[in-house]
Design goal:
- With 390 residues, the protein is of the alpha/beta class.
- The chain contains 17 helices and 16 strands.
- Strand 9, helix 10 and strand 10 form a beta-alpha-beta unit.
- Helix 5 packs parallel to helix 7 and helix 9 runs antiparallel to helix 17.
- The chain is globular, with a radius of gyration of 21 Å.
- It holds the Pfam family PS_pyruv_trans.
- This is Polysaccharide pyruvyl transferase family protein.
- Keywords: Transferase.
Amino acid sequence: MRILLTGIPSYLQRTIGSVAGMTVHHRPYFDEVTAKKDFLSQVRRIANTGNYLIGEGAAQSLRGHDVTYVPFWHLVNNRTSDDVYEQANREFDICVFASANLLRPGYSADLEAEVFAKLKMPVVVMGIGIQRKEGLKELLPAGTLKFLDVLRNRESFFLTRGYFTAEFLREQGMKFVKPTGCPSLYFAPNEMVRSLTALANPALADAQKIAFGGYLGSVADTIVDAHALLGPKSVASYVVQDEVIAYNLDLPGDDTTPVYDRASGRITGATQYKHKEKWQREHELITFFDTNQWRGWTTTRDMCFGRRFHGCIIGMQAGVPALMIAVDDRMREMLEFIGFPYIEAATWNREADKRTYLSNFLSKIDAEAAVDRYRACETNFRNVLGQIGI
C-alpha cells in the first residue's frame, strides 16, 4: 500500500532539505548544533524532543509498505495549491497522521481541518489523545471541532492513546475508534519487556546513575527527587526536552554563544532557571536530537525516573528499567491503558522518605502481569493496523 505519512516526524526530519510536490529531498547530513541559535532552532523544530519517539514509532509500524513522510508544514503551506493535493490524491492510497495530545482547549486544529478536507483518501489518526479531561467537550476550539467534523464525514480511523479519548471520539460520532496507546510503545517490544521485568527490583531505589526528567525551570520537583535518591557525590543527569522554549530554562548569551556538545549531548553553556539555586550536588543537563544516541546514552544509566512519559519510554526502548510519576490526565490515560507501574505525583511529592517508599513500591510490582498486559496491547495494536489494511 502507498502510504502518505505526515504529522509528528521522526528525528530524520532533520535531514529534509526541500519538498517539491510529493517528492521529499533529504540531505546526507544533519545541521550543526553548537551555538545557542542553532540549539534553540532544533528544539523549536519538534517543540519537544520526546515527540520524535511518536513519529519514529508511527513510521516503524508501517514497515512493509511504500511509505513517504511528507512534512505537515508542506501540506499546510500548499493548502491553496490544487496541483499539490491532486498529486497527493493520485499517488497515495491512505494517509497516516501521527499525532499526540491534539484534543486540548489550548490548541485549535484549523490547519489540520483544512489539510484533511483536501486529501481525498482514507485517513488514519494515530496516537491521538487528550491533555485534560475536565471541560474537554465544552472547551475544544472551533478549529478542532471542524477537524473532527471533516473526518466524521470521511473514511477515517482513530487509534487513541487510551480509553477516555476513545469514548470521547465515539460520542462525537466517529465510527472506527480503537484504543491502542502511543505508537512509541511498540517500537522495540522485546526491550520494553526486558525493561518491565527489570523494574521489579527494590535495589533500584539505591541506583546512582539515573536519567531524570521533569519540568526544570518551572518547578523544583526533579531537584528534590535527585537529592532524595542520589548520594551527595553522585552526579544528577537531567534530560531536557522542551524546557528551553516552554518552561523558562534560559541560555544566557547571544545567538553565537556555544551552548551544546553534540557528541555527548550535554548543554555546555551557562543556564538560568527558577530554583536552580536549590541544587546541592553536581548535575548535568543533556539534550538529544537523535533518538538512537538518546537510547544509547540511557544504557549507561541504571534507571529512568521522572515526570516525562517519553523520557522514560526511550529508556524502556533500550531495555532500561523506567518508572514514571503521573502528573496529568494525559499521562494517566496512557499509563492506565498500557498497564505500566507508576506513582501518582501527589503521593510521591508528600513522601518524606522517598527512597524507602520507592523500594517498597518496586518490591510489589507484578512484572509478569505487566508484561502480559503489554504483550496484549502490542497484539491489539498490530491487529488494529491489520483491520485497516496496513
